Protein 1
Amino acid sequence: MEGKVLELASLRGVRKQYGKVVALDGVDLSIAPGQVLALLGANGAGKSTAIALLLGLVRPDAGQALLSGQSPQQLAARRNIGVMLQSAGIADNSKVRELLELTRSYYPQPRSIDDCVALAGLDGLLGRQYGKLSGGQQRRVQFALALCGNPRLLFLDEPTTGMDIEARQALWRAIGQLSAQGCAVLLTTHYLEEAEALADRVVVLARGRVVAAGSMDEVRRHVAQRRIRCLSALDAAGIAAWPQVRSARRDAARLEIVTDAAEDVVRRLLAEDGALSELEVQRAGLAEAFLEITRDDADVASADEREAA
Amino acid sequence: MNTIANVASPAPPSSLRIYLLEARHEFVRMLRTPSFALPVLLFPALFYTLFGLVLNRADGGMAARYLLATYGVFGIMGAGMFGFGVVVAMERERGFLAYKRALPMPPGAYLFAKMAMAMLFSMLISALLAVLAGALGGVSLAPWQWLSLLAINVAGVAPFCAMGLFVGTLVGGQGAPAVLNLLYLPMAFLSGLWLPLKMLPPVFAAMAPAWPPYHLSQLALRVVKMDGGGSMAVHVAVLVAVTALFFALARRRLQRTG
């Protein structure tokens, strides 16, 4: 096939079921060199299953999971990746240097220990036992173990869970640095601002399906809605009935309107209320976009269930 | 389909080095947490001192010789079953096993490290018992006999590692010690490791070939010329089969559950 994008990792039409629960239902996903892809979704949406399939921890019921065109079960395929899972379960009585040395030994061209220390911020921690580190320090060690093999693709599963803001931003900087060096990243996260800060592509999963995929802007545009705030005496219930207004509510003197056509609504607001003041219009952030996408999907699903009932 | 990026791959890392590092790591961790190691090492020696040396002095050293062989088997059973069973159950429960499987670690390195530890424990247990038997029990054996007992104990730990591993894939870290003790202690008794089968009702001797430790103890007892006279080849074959069976079961279980 001509013009095919080079892929470091991909899921192709993957289906995975645990007992009666369908975790993934025909998911396609791919990540190219140098890309930072954020995989978003509520708990139970299928993110962890997608990661487990790509790491070769489980096998798909149908479809294919590939790493560099090979099965993730192949050792050679996994030598291209670094992994940071939600819980690594690393033994408390291992020293940080030992963990780094051991993990580096799995890779053909690992980073030097000094580089790992610098990138992950492990100064002064090499001689310490893992169990005696703080939660944030342990996450940094896990990050160092993920990057120590000099991988072309990093899997970061909820990397900043449990970190304070400073630690989180330090990790973001480190991820940015790796990405600038050409390392691709597949990131799952609960923090939407994390995806906005790091990712150039987003895939949103809901109920085991991809409900949105594209660049950060595309996904945001997917939801055209904007939020209008103003001080006005107009009746909120009346505005809610206007065309293309999704919702309108009053909070003391302030009106808050969510709409798909901000310009039309603003024009009409100004026409109907000459005293209107403090007008603000905001584009939805990823949080709103994400909520919107998954809510629509949930609505459809519950409508299906009602029909089926 | 030559469309995938096939960057000229550098030489793969040395497997031997990974295996050795993994084993060394396991070893230093064990030194740092002696609460697991000490009971496994000292219990067989303690029991042997009590039942083989202190309580059975009147029989001309028969007990000291018999129990040298069988407590060796008893000791290495514990090292194999608990070293694999409890540790694997805990590491699986904590997500460590999944993490290791996601890394490009050769799968054999994990098992090798644990097996090397179990064999090291077997060596130490055998050496402790030998010192006690020789110095305090008046047991006198030819050099080949001492070495044979050591070799039987070190190689014989494999089936118990396999059984422990299988249990570790079935139950969690909390439940594993209880389940393992339920297997360990009755099997030890029923195989004649604490009392010769001749001293028990005949039904016990008839059932004994069903228990793996019986076969290993027969090999050890042959060395001290106190075995039941069965075929050594059959004993070895049973032990090899038990090892293969439980490793295969554990492997299947790990592949399915992740």
Note: Chain B has eleven helices and no strands.
Protein 2
Amino acid sequence: MFLDTFFRIQKYYHHDGSRHSHSHSDSNGSGITTKKSGAREIKVVRRVLDINEKMADQNRTLFTAKGIFVLNVMSSPGSGKTTTLEKTLSQIASEINSAVIVGDICTTNDADRLAVSGVPVVQINTDEFGGDCHLAAHVIEKAVGGLDLDDIDLLIVENVGNLVCPAEFDIGEDARVVVLSVTEGEDKPAKYPLMFRECEVALLNKVDLLPYLDYDKQKAIDFIHQVHPGMPVFEISAKTEEGFKPWIDWLRGKVKDKAEGKEHSA
Amino acid sequence: MHEMGIALQIIEIATDSIPPDAGDVRVEKINLKIGKLAAVVPDSLRFCFDAAVKDSPLEGAKLFIQALPVVARCRDCDAQWTINGPAFTCENCNGGSLEILSGRELDIESIEIVQKDEHVS
């Protein structure tokens, strides 16, 4: 099955920003304070992304009720997410009922590649020309409408290639994985600390290329552990499938735990 | 890169926060708290916000952004300190099990409104 789903968010571009200083005033406890200037300050105290977080919680509740383990896979563009998932699916699709949601700004190329594995794939395009840089919870909620959730134990979300924004958006996943490749800088974890803090495991991909590169693998792992002490790092090659066993075992264990959690709560 | 989406969310929350009985008011200022570990660039956010409020009821409103430091607590030795670089190990015991106490905020604290006919300096 292959579904072609498009979500677009209108974008605006315009002029400059400016800074303003803050003036102090006393609160009378009502939530509205009148300042010396005559302006009234109204207490709001809300998380800016609370709508996304609420939607993510709804997604999570749904996935838990269905016993589906949801994995959010993130990385910079070109680190090998899609190839890693192609090979992962080819190893597990026969034993674990899987589905994939794949996000890109445009094209359905990744979905076409992943659909070869035979699992249901939903492609999300955030825009045809320069759309959103991440997947948000409401987009996932719409995308799962195209899947039969009773038939799925593992849902993999391949996020838009980007090491910054996706880290900020909860989509209702159980775990986050970051893919880093040895053709990138060793210090990427230090440059994008939030992403490496937010993810549970790291896949260090393209290790088959190490003999041809001046890449200091230990330095990269040290940077990962500087930002996220104790983070499991699976060294893999999506091309040769070297190092896949610990990664697949980790995934298998997570899917099993989630399915058992459903039985316990039922 | 996603600052426009965040700006639109701020506009929505700010608009909803104007009391229904406030009369003919304009929003002068929106006070935000943004942690240094949040994936938000304040200047980009202001740029997007100014563009998005143009020709809207919030036109002219300014964002006041209070940046919050990244503060961690060690779960092993209970030490507490401010993290200034991408190193997340305990300064005291070198442990790696940290609780991030602040630094991930992306909160809208308050809005400031004035009557439209009033001139506020």
Note: Helices of chain B lie at 3-17, 42-53.
Protein 3
Amino acid sequence: MEPIIELTHVSKTFHAQNGEVEALKDISLSIEKGDIFGIIGLSGAGKSTLVRCLNLLEKPTSGEVIVNGNSLMSLSNKQLRKERQRIGMIFQHFNLLMQRTVLDNICFPLEIAGVKKSEARKRAMELLEVVNLSEKAKAYPAQLSGGQKQRVAIARVLATDPEILLCDEATSALDPQTTKSILSLLKEINEKRGITIVVITHEMAVVQEICSHVAVLDHGNLMETGSVEDLFRKPKTDAAKRLVLSGFAHIGEMKGERKVRVTFDGHTAFEPIIGNIILEYKTPINILYADTKTINGNAEGEMILQLPQNEEIADKIVSYFKEKNLGVEEVDDYAR
Amino acid sequence: MLDSTTIHMLVEGTGATLYMTLLSTFFGYVLGLPIGIILTITDKEGIKPNAVVYKILDFIVNILRSIPFLILLILLIPVTRFIVGKSYGVAATVVPLVFAAAPFIGRMVESSLKEVDKGVIEAAQSMGAGTMTIIWKVLLAEARTSLLVGLTIAIGTILGYSAMAGVVGGGGLGDIAIRYGYYRYQTNIMIITIVILVLLVQILQGIGMMVSKKLDRRQH
């Protein structure tokens, strides 16, 4: 496989009012043809700048960008515009023309490319079928949902048959369900049309879902690159570890049925009991209710906790509370 | 109450006012639209940033905008005489009206075009659109509602300016109001001209707003 995108020593410095900001620091990267390549990083890592260097919407301060065998920086304006027709891009906020119908939006890149109107319309209708939105041809973007808008944007970007598709946080404004369907559409496009896709995201879940290779970006530095499996199994850098761990943020709903009421007085309030339990038994505890009252001049606290489903651990937790001299009683009529 | 000569005069005055207003608006846009476009694209956030061009144009627009119309009217008499051949009458009023309207229109066009979503412009650039394509198919097309509202405001303002030109014998309803209503104390004629002016503004405003709303696709 030969690389379709190659960055060598790319740096980008912005001149802001309060000094210079190094958005990208000496980035070298190569992306192979037919790949779905993820670039992941937290906000401010430089991802958006990096992806804009791939079609020169941002001009690198130094370094070289080679796409489809052309060094983009050495192209004339006219050649660059021609080249951009082969590098499609979709965006977080879809960026459709609000005053044009869905069909005319898809015709827009074809107008730029100088395709005849009747031909453009025919092609646009075909693409609407690909993204499953044929019935919305005459609708305006304002009448569509977020997911539908992104589908239109995808149809629009496919109109000029690009070799590369850049996705700048393309699913970040969408709900999880819609994100899934857009990602599977991208995967389908990659498989059926052999389009190389570069995905910019801050979500590990997106990378895991569709990418084959990934680069981790942190404060303008390229931390590591490799296959998604490798990053997932053995992240080498701290930035990568943090991103991998953020994938576990969704622990899911607590399923345990047992609830206990725990009471404590001012003396035990300084001990991080709940924290200790979570660390000790590696299990989440759900605090359903908590309050402190002053009874006869003493601070008295009470908490209603939902225990984990595992009976054994739940029992251990109850005895842990007893050990610490806290009042524990089972409650079963506490409604959420 | 009114004899036929007065009625004839008022009808002619209304025609002259409309003629001045529409002609000035037209030429105002011939100059103002490019000014607005250039101000938008040469701004440092624009698609062709150019600090020198922006600053020069910005300065000229500000200067012209800060001269009161009545003063501009007198100041421009030599220019008017050069272009039209005389300094009074309907045609002569158009010249200072255009000079007053163009920078004002330029500013309004600039503010309309700057409302266009930067992301949409970026998307067009990513498709390989050139500057002219972006101006025509993105900036002007996407801002059309706002531009039409601006046009409506411009017509109303120019109509008001044209009445001021009556002071220097400019013709039209303003001229009639000053000559009959003010110099000859014929209050009834003054009131009729005011009513006609109010009606004209209302009608033009109504049409403008209706058309702009009709052309707006951003709502369901």
Note: The two ends of chain A are 57 Å apart (CA to CA).
Protein 4
Amino acid sequence: MPKKYHIPIKTADPRHHPIGKYATVEFREDCAGSCRVCVKKKCVYGIFKDNYLHMSTMGEPEYLYACHSCFRCVQECTKGIFSRVINPEYRTLGDEYWRSDILHRIWYQAHTGKIPVSGAGYRGPFVAAGFDSMWTDMSEIVRPTRDGIHGREYINTCFEISRRISPLKFNDDMSLASEALPILENPIPLILQLPGNLIINPAIVESAAKAAQVLDTFLIIQPKDYSDTLLPYARNLIPSFTRANIRNHEALIQQSRAVELAFDNDIEDAIHNIREIKSDIILMIRIPLDADAASRALELSALEVDTLHFYADDHGNELNTENPRFLKEMIREIHLKLVNGFVRQRINLVFSGGIAMAEHMAKSIICGADGVIVDTPLLIALECRLCYRCRENLSCPAKIDNTIDPQWGSQRMINLMGAWHNQLIEVMGAMGIREARRLRGEVGRSMWFEDLEMESFGPIFGKRKIAGFK
Amino acid sequence: MKKNKNHFQFPKIVQVPDRFRNSIGKYTIRRNSRCISCGLCAELCPHGVHPRYDIFSKPLRPKDYKCIGFKCKETDFFCIDRCPEQALTLRRNPILETLGDYRWTSEMLIAHWDMAETGNLPIVDLEYNLGNSGGGFDKIRFKTPEPGDYLNFDDEDVDTSITLNKRGDGRPDVINSIPCYGGGMSYGSTALSVMVARARAAKLLNTLTCTGEGGYPKELIPYAEHVITQIATGLFGVREETILFSPMVEFKYAQGAKPGLGGHLLGDKVTPEVAAMRETVVGNALFSPFPFHSVYSVEDHKKHVDWVKEINPDVLVSVKVSTPTDVDMVAVGSFYAGAHVVHLDGSYGGTGAAPDIAKKNIAMPIEYAIPKVHNFLKDEGARDKVCLIASGGIRNALDVAKAIALGADGVVIGTAELVALECVRCGHCESGRGCARGIATTDHELGIMIAEDWATQRIVNMYMAWRKQWCEILRQYGLKSIKELVGRSDLLVHLDYLDEEERSKYQPAPQAELII
């Protein structure tokens, strides 16, 4: 039996109480103070077990970090003194894109490595902007394979970051006439990268590098963040250069399997320089996701580059415009430009910015990406609350700016990526797709809001008069 | 007993109070220490918000969940203004922001608890017809009816029944007196008392309920004529006699909550009773693999259908599928394989635990699937021969009516029945000991929180309240039977497809930003 890709998940407890969604409100003046049937003692989930005694000391009310919202304490208290509110601290988590529920789920996955599971159906909006306006398909009969419990054990999530070998050419004596290009495969369609605008310190970099090594993927790293402690992880690092600093880091290029190069107008020279240092290195070009992205992709596909890395802003939006398009539309545009230029098979596309949930990875691939680059969630896995105090040089409430244990940090990231990988497999299994590479650009395995509305509601209600989702 | 034209007697409505001491309502009334216990508020309030007993003169905590709120201000019994000591305060209950979600809003939950308690539509100003999801049913409205179309007749004369067998193949018609039947929730996923109560309610309402995949507990046998046996991929608990018992057998190919993923009962829930029922090992997680490993085609599927039909010559066959992009082809394939009922389970529904990624992302919402399949079956000339049942995200009586107008014959209800039993939709059906409210649990201590009589009547009450809404809709459009509503999408409008002026005539879609 072939060796299967396996992510070693292990519980990694949070260092701080995760910020819970709910807070209790108690009207203490009505409380008997030592009620023998106090609902706090009866909590099914035992969330008060460490602190119900504070009733006698009349301590401050505590946040309910692990409250499961069953309402029994509210409804069973003999005096009716319990009520609750949304924890005000929970409201402050993240921003309009990185919502508090997304952070909460990332924390849970980083802690346990498990897929978030809940009962009682879906509870969100019918449709929303971005990736939330498409659904993935499923098949009633087709499965990746009938082997195993669900057939999912054999789903291949590999993608390549090396460019494809063009059709082989042979000499008359049947010896190979065409050049055999190096192949570099990633067993999981994601690459790690630490977000540049949040806290980065050596311990965090080491955590991410270690996670990349265990996951057998790569960490994109700035040369300034590189130190000799990262030498054991060199095979899993992709140093990111600009044309100006290539020559300063020849040793780093030599020890790397792949490097990233920032796009500029004289990129060909820079590519040449890198190939001079190490001819068979895998080369990724870092390009802003803006209006020129698709045409640049087409131009670069003619050069000796392997992968194009387009970076959007933190919210997955197009750069350098007042009316940005979202990642989903941008991926489609670039992918289709290359398809129509007959060069899509030659080169790989990866995207960063705004990849916040496992479903974003699957949906990006459906839209046409080969893989995605995960950035901000790595810091959230380390308990970052996206309060952005660090951008103002203020202290970090999650103490990420203090030294963290790289073992713990890497395990949190591994757990998160493990949970994402499992979710990708779930979605692919439902679609009956056996290989992530076959999912690329496979929009036939998805359903889009606009299409469904037109197809199902158009014949009934006529022409849609409102654009958007609200 | 109420009698309708089919001579079926709908059950009586009986008041069934909340199980808990402190009911949650839309409003709170607080009484402060200035109260002199004069008893005026108790005398005034016709809704029983202020309880008072002859032998106990001290003030009691108000039953504020019965309070009709600020609209009471227009009456002469508004306790807040009439209190001589101004000891009472009325507020919108702040706890509402912690209850509910985009699909099941806090008001929709409270309203359904109220319906389950009283059997009537709530008198409190609760929005129970529309959720906050911003799409699908929440943006579809029934057209403003023509006054001349109104048919003035009693609820007793309105036919809300549906026929499950339209094939004319000599098997029983199986008529349900309401256009709903209960969705499959297995032994193991819900408490036994809940299962039995659902079956009892189904019998009283002359409809059906479904075993789910966990086997057929002997406690259901007295209600066997109203219990569907589900055959799913794990084949847990399926026996020849349970197929012989049943009026209908349901093949579950997929379910909306986790389309294409199969089922997974966590080891914690596999108690000795569950293990015995499913013929498995205590404490071991149980998987229902996806899909049927013996089905690769419609022909294979037909073998399954034929197998069941051969065992029981009177049984109907339902095929439950999810809503992929080719759901229309799947439906027509099921019909040609011999199914009497094609049951579409949309992606946003489901009662059991499922990965969040699946519930949100896999397969299409039921609102899209119903007209797609309805029209395709019509084009194929098969629509009159098959009963199309929809489920997955159908929350209230209006959703049922909208689903039928979009093209379904009837619907399957799961979550709303649990809400009638005071589910708060916390979503922790699977964790630890299971549902803290005693509904979706196999824990002995929690399981006894639900009494069968109580639960039966709550479910009956909710459906009787729903029936009042269906009857009113049918009267408004001059229809005498809910069968006449099937496929009447001309009676519907969608807010996003209307001009602004036209749109302003309809209730706008609720658009509150919620924290989920």
Note: Residues 244 and 283 of chain A are 16 Å apart (CA to CA).
